[in-house]
Amino acid sequence: MTERLSGHTLLISLIATPIRHSMSPTMHNEAFSKLGLDYAYLAFEVGNQELADAVQGIRAMGIRGSNVSMPNKQEIIQYLDEISPEAELIGAVNTVTNLEGKGHLVGYNTDGIGAMAALKDEGVEVKDAVITLTGAGGAGTAVAVQAAFDGAKEIRIFNIADQAFENAKLTAQKITEKTNAKATVTDLADQAAFKQSIAESSIYIDATGAGMKPLEDVSLINDPEVIRPDLVIFDVVYAPRETKLLRFAKEHGAKKAINGLGMMLYQGAAAFKLFTGEEMPVAYIKDLLFSEE
Ligand code: NAD
């Protein structure tokens, strides 16, 4: 790694907190090395307080792009010059480009693109699908919007009655108005409606973070009757690789129970393309990431 760094090396940053656990620096640096690209990718512990200065730093130092994670994904929009249509609809940005270091910052959101690419990789067709989705925070919104852009017929969002519920309603309204998909929101407390919706869906996506710390013992599906062999179950969590939901689904006969690793990989690949104009060597990185742990 260090052997190839020089005075010409271009920097890509990741600004979020907490961020030291992230796989993104490894993923991007390994991809730069593999392709012989003169870039380096570093994580910076940046929260909302430091965000304005950090964005100024990106401009001032000609940092060529940045990934953005929590808690900055929404907050950063006010500091950018332009945002892409999907980032606008999602209301959040996870990738910023500063092409040629000229200081014109454009925000994108590749989380939903990553989720749809991960499904495609598993041979799952989103076009014309009826999808039941739990969660309407950052990840859930990105998934819902991209599924709509990719031709899903219906996206049925179920959320608990917390602050994300209002966001879910807003997202559903925007999707229904601006895409060809129909989106609805129902309180997850209505378990009969939830089960009925899954029975009518080909894909169930959990974007709540249930199954990951501190919710590692939580699965939003606990009734074996809900699981069918032809129901695709996709959990955006990738740590642990097998959440309670995925274990339960496999035990009860689901043929496709997919974790969030592919989503993480492909959101990175889409960002890599925006930063460098090159395709990430996905198979190589996949081997590296999937074989770890
Ligand atoms: P968030 O806080 O923005 O949203 C959380 C959502 O889950 C909300 O809709 C909330 O109402 C719901 N929720 C919270 N607790 C719940 C519970 N006990 N029961 C039911 N619903 C509950 O979080 P986020 O940024 O959207 O992240 C969600 C998950 O997605 C995290 O685990 C994160 O690691 C994962 N994620 C994965 C990728 C990836 O590339 N695989 C990318 C982004 C996020």
Automatic annotation (TrEMBL):
Entry keywords, A to Z: Amino-acid biosynthesis, Aromatic amino acid biosynthesis, NADP, Oxidoreductase
Reactions that this protein is recorded to catalyse: shikimate + NADP(+) = 3-dehydroshikimate + NADPH + H(+)
Origin: domain of life: Bacteria
Residue numbers binding NADP(+): 135-139, 236, 260
GO terms for MF: shikimate 3-dehydrogenase (NADP+) activity
Active site, renumbered: 73 (proton acceptor)
Residues where shikimate binds: 22-24, 69, 94, 111, 238, 267
Pathway of action: Metabolic intermediate biosynthesis; chorismate biosynthesis; chorismate from D-erythrose 4-phosphate and phosphoenolpyruvate: step 4/7
Enzyme class: oxidoreductase
Entry's EC annotation: 1.1.1.25
InterPro entries found in the cross-reference section: SDH_C, Shikimate_DH, Shikimate_DH-bd_N, Shikimate_DH_fam
Domain SDH C-terminal as annotated: residue spans: 260-289
HAMAP family: Shikimate_DH_AroE (MF_00222)
Family in the record: Belongs to the shikimate dehydrogenase family.
Record note on quaternary structure: Homodimer.
Name of the molecule in the record: Shikimate dehydrogenase (NADP(+))
Taxonomic source organism: Enterococcus alishanensis
